[in-house]
Amino acid sequence: MRDVYSPIPELNLLKEFSDRIGRVWYSAGFELCEYGVDAGLDTWSEDPEFLAPFIPFAKATRSGSHYALWRCDDRADLTTLPVVFVGDDGDLDIVARNLLELFQLLTIDDETLNPDFVEQHTEGHEEYLTWLDETFGLRPPEDLDALRAGLKEHDERFKTWATRFVELD
Question: How many CB atoms within 10 Å of residue 124?
Answer without folding.
Answer: 19
